[in-house]
Amino acid sequence: MSSSIEFIRQSLELHLFFARIMKEHSFFLEAGFTQRDSNLILEADTFRMEFDKLLADTVVLSNGVVSCSVLQSGEVITPFTLKAEMASAYFTGVNISTNLTNAESTLMCNDLMRVNSAFEQRVFMLNQRAMELVSDLAEFKTRILSAVMSCKIFTNNYPLLIDHILREAKFYYKLVQKLQNRENINLEMEAYKQEAFWNRIMAEHSKFIRGLLDPTENELINTANNFGNEFDKLTEEAKEAMDKTIPISKVTDDSLKATIEISKFKAQGTQGLVDCKIRSIIIPLLGDHTLREANHYLRLLKIFRKVNV
Fold first, then answer.
1. Which residues pair with 87 in a beta bridge?
2. What's the whole-model pTM score?
3. 242-294 pLDDT, tens per residue?
4. Among the four residues 76, 239, 249, 288, which has the most C-beta atoms within 10 Å?
5. What is the CATH number of the domain that holds 303?
6. Domain end among 120, 154, 184
7. How far apart are CA 89 and CA 83, in angstroms?
8. What span, in angstroms and rounded, lies between the C-alpha atoms of 148 and 136?
9. CB-hemisphere CA count at 13 Å for 46?
10. 179 shares its domain with 191
């Protein structure tokens, strides 16, 4: 059973990362629908604003509580987040709350926190609220994917992207559920699952980037394609490690090297999108979104490498 300190810190750190991811998923869906589906635009916008509220409450609870490694990892916000939000709001007309980003930029960390039962109960209730909201969003994404696959609606988002963000919602839900149940996390087993999950996510990011770049951006297209192939192989390696065919330490080392490189690629790409130096149909916030996910995975890989050693 996890301690109160671990429960609080892991819960808040999870929401700081994933609540923002979910609100941006809602935004990407909202921006991708046509005017014919104004009801779906409204539904996605409602989810976006609900996750804004969840993230805002998480930020208030997190100040002086979460670990320094999380705030310094670049998974909560990056140097590009604010500009990417402003540009994306300008392009779409969606009122993205940059106040949250400003609030997150002032968060203080604390590796030696103390807790009380009242604070722990507030975090427990936040987790319950997150689970209900994520469950509803997952149902919405499932409905959208089904409608797209049966040609009932058109969206500018790839069917794979909708499936991709649905898997992330389900993953988030399971992680919160584990915390609520006070399950002990076996880091070795967690490494197998997380590396198989995130390597696939990194592979798909690469393929989305490849497909959304302008056809004239040959060098970037080739780089993205190479990352896609590399992370496809790493996904298979992680599955083989689960079957004990190869050691997990090898997968972790290989994944770490590849994720460091793709994080650099995404950072350069996001900078290029914000500065209007890259030809594409990639909304700037999508670039920053994928960069934060790479940074989150990098932090996890560093933890797993210590465990493996």
1. none
2. 0.96
3. 887 788 888 999 999 999 999 999 999 999 999 999 999 999 999 999 999 99
4. 288
5. 1.20.1260.120
6. 184
7. 10
8. 19
9. 10
10. no
